[in-house]
Amino acid sequence: MQIIRENSTKILFSLIFSIILCSYPLFTTTAETTIETTIGKMKTFSHVEEIDYGPTSLPLVYDSQVFDDGTMVIRIVRRDSPNNDCFINMLSLRIINLDGTVIEKDYKNLDIPKINYCSLIKSYPLKYYLIRKKQILVTYYNSTDPNDILNATLTEWGIVIDLDGNVLDRRYFGPAAPTSAISKIQLNINREKGFLRCNMRANTTNIVEWQQYRIEPEGNFTNLTSGNFNLSGPVNSTVVTMSTIDEGYAIVFVDRTQKTDDDSNIKNITIIPQNQLSILPIGYSQTSVSPFLLYQICTNLEFISLTCDIAYVGVGKVCFLVAKQDYSETAIYIKVNFLSSGAITSLLTLNSSDPVNTTSFWRVRSLTFGGYLFISFDVNFNSIDGVLYDGKVGTAYGFGSSTNSKGIFEILPHNNTLLVAQKEIDNSWQFDITDDLPKSAGDRDKGYSNLNVESTIPKIQSTVKPNLDEVSITFYDPVALSTGKLSIYQKDGDKTYLRQSFQPYFLSIENDNRTVTGRILNSTFSVSKGNYFIKVDNDFVRDRVFNEPMLGIRENIWNFTTEERIDHFSRSATGILRLTPGGTLYFDNLTSDHFFDNLLNEISYAVPINRSRLSSNGRTQVDNSVNEKQYLISIDIKETRIENDISVATVIKYLDFMVRYKDQTPIGEGQTTQYLDEKYGFVRSPNLWEKYKFGLLGIFLFVGLLIVLFLFAQIRDSRGNNIAILQLGIIILDLVMDILFVNSNARDIPILYLPSVLFLVIPVGINTILAFSIVTNENTNTKFNQWFKTNAKVAFLFTILAGADIKALNILHSKFAGFSCFRAPFSESLKVKILWGSCLSIFIADIPQVAIQG
C-alpha cells in the first residue's frame, strides 16, 4: 500500500488570463503563457459569443462532450433574468474544432418543455450526447402536469437532431425518476452502435432497468434489448455504467448493508460483508446474464463514489472506489482491476491524509495514455484540485486551478490535453488548457492511441508503393484473433472509400503470436498518390494469456500515402458480370433501371471511378454454362485521358479482383453488388473478330465455294438456272443458323426455349414428309421415273435437303451447269406442290423464328 500525500505533491499555478475582445463575431483568440510545470504547458482559450444577452445572462460553460478525435462540443447556458432558477429556453452548443475554430449552434425549435431549462431537485434534466459528427442525441423530461414536476406523469424522452437542428426521430424512453441518482445514458465504445439507458424503476428503490438502443445512419431509434435486476440494498446503493471493448456494456454497482441505530456505537462489524462490488455484463444487442460478485469487504466503509472504465494499459477493466471509514474523515481509494470473467487481477488501496469535506466531491478519470486523474471540485471557491496518478507506487503529480461554477473540465483522448472551464467574463467564455499531461505508459505510446500496439507495416505517415503486398500489426504481448476486422480505407477530402477488409480467417499470426499479417489485394491501392488509413476494430484481437478483448485503432490515425503510379491509356471496353442465383431472383423483382442504377453507383464507389464513365445497356442473358438460372450483364467502361484517372484496363483488372474476393472488398457489402458471382469475376468482352473469326472464315469459304460453283456452271452451260446453287447455299446456311440459335441462345429466355425447338423440328419434319411424298407421287410420271432410276442418289440427297426448305427440290430441274442429274422432268402439278409447300413453310417456320429470334 502506498500513501499519497496530496498536500505535499500539489503544485499551485498562477493563471494568466489574456482575453482579447474583438469586434468581429465568432472570432476566437488563444493566449499561451510559458508556464513550465510538472504536468505540461498552460494556455488560455477564449471565445466571444456572437450574440450578447446582457450582463445578467452571461454564457456559462455548463457541460462538455468530446469526440474520439478531440473535437469538443460544449453546452452554453444563460440565466433567464426574471427567474434565476431557469435558463433561456434554448439548447446552445459550441463545436470547438481541432484548429481552434468555433461553430455556434443555437436550437430553439426542438419542442422540448420549459421544465428542462429549470432546476429539478438541484439538477437540469436536459442532456446531450455525441453520436456521429452530424448527429446528436438529446434527452429531456416531459410531464402532463408541468406544475408538479415530481408526479407520476414525468417521463423521459430522447430526440436525435442533426447540426441544423432538424429532429430526425423522437422516442419515449419511459417514466422518469428525477430524485434518483440512477438515471444514466452510456454511449457504446463504438458510438454508431448506440447507447444503453439505465434508470431506477418508477416507484421503487431497488429495481434497476436498462434498455439498449441503436441509432441508425438516418437518425432513427431502434430498440434492441432490455432487462432489469434487483439491488439487495435500498437507495444508498451506487450504480455506474460503462462501455466494454467488445462493444457491449456493463453495469457496476455497490450494495451496502443498511445499518440500524443499534450499530451506531459499534466500530467494527465483521459478521457479514457490508459492501459488495458486483457487475452485470450486457452483450451488444443481447440480454444480460445474472450479476456476479467482484469484490466484498466487511469493514465499516462508506462508499461515496464509484468510477469504472476500460483499462487503457494492459487488459480488462478498472474501477475506483472512493470511500471513508466510519468515525473517520480519511479518504480511501480502492483500485480494482478485473477481467470480463470477474477475476480480479490487481487490488490496490490508496490512502489520502486530506479530509473529504462536504463542500467537495471527487471524480476519477482514466486516461487513454495511462494513469488516472483525481479531481476535487470545491463548490464554495469554484476551484479544482487534482492529482495525476500514474498507477505506480510512489508517483503522483498535483495541480490546482480556478474554474467556473460548474467545475467543467475535459481531457482530450487523442493527446492527453486537459481543459478546465473558467468563470465567464462579459460575453465570452474560456478554458485553461494544459498541454500533454504526462503519459504514464512511457515509450509504449507509438502514436496509435493504443498502448498495446508496438509497430505496424506500413508505418504511420509513411509513403508506400502501390504494389505493397501485405499489412501487419505487432503488439507488445501475445494475442489471438477475435471477431473484429481490420479495414483499409482511401480518403478523398471528406469522403472515405472502403478498399479491403480482413475477417479473422484471412489473417495469420506469427512472431511468437505478436504479429498479425494480412495479404493485400491488387485492387486495394488503386489511386495514385492516394491518402489511406487503416482502422482496426475493437476486439480485433484478444490477449492470449487472459483472453480479454483489446482496443483497436480508430480511423484517421494509422495514415499513409501511396507513391505515384503510371497508368497507360486504354480504349473504352465492355465487360461481363454474372449474377448469383439469388441475384437473378433479386433482379427479377426490381425494374431494370433501378437495378442498374444501383449497381453502377456501387461499382463507382468500390473501384473508385467517376460514375459518368460507367454505363450499361440494361439487358440480361441467361448463362447456359451453369445449372441454375443466372443472368449475364454487361458494363461499358468509358476511356479517359485525364491525368491520374484510372485506365479502362486497370478498372477491368481491379473490378475482377474485387468481385472474386468480394468478401474482402466493398463489392460484398453493396446492396446490389453483393449479388455478383465471385466465381465468374469481371470478364472483358472479347473482340468480335477474335470470338467469331473461325465461324466467319467458314462462312466466307462456304460462300466463296458457292460463287465458284456458280461461275463454273455459267461457263459450262449458261442456259441453266445456275443461280439455284446460291439458293441452295442460303437454305443450308439458314438451317445451320437455326440449329446454332437453339443450341446457344434459346435458353436466354427460358419461356421461349420450347417454342424455339418446336418451330425448328416441326417444319423440318413437315418439309421432309412433304418432299418424300412429292417425289414418290411423281414416280408415276414415266419420264420422271426413268430420270429417278438413273439419278436415285442425287434425288435422295436433295429430298433430304428439302427438309430444311421444300424449295431445295427445285435444283433437281434447274439444269445446273448442264448436268443431266439436274434435268429432272417435273410436272406442273409437282411445281405447284413445291410452291404451296414453300408458302406453308413461311407460316410454320420463318415467321415464328423471326419472332422468337428477334
UniProtKB/TrEMBL annotation:
The transmembrane segments are 694-713, 725-746, 752-774, 794-814
Instruction: Classify the source by domain of life.
Output: Eukaryota
State the UniProt keywords alphabetically: Membrane, Transmembrane, Transmembrane helix
Official protein name in the record? Uncharacterized protein
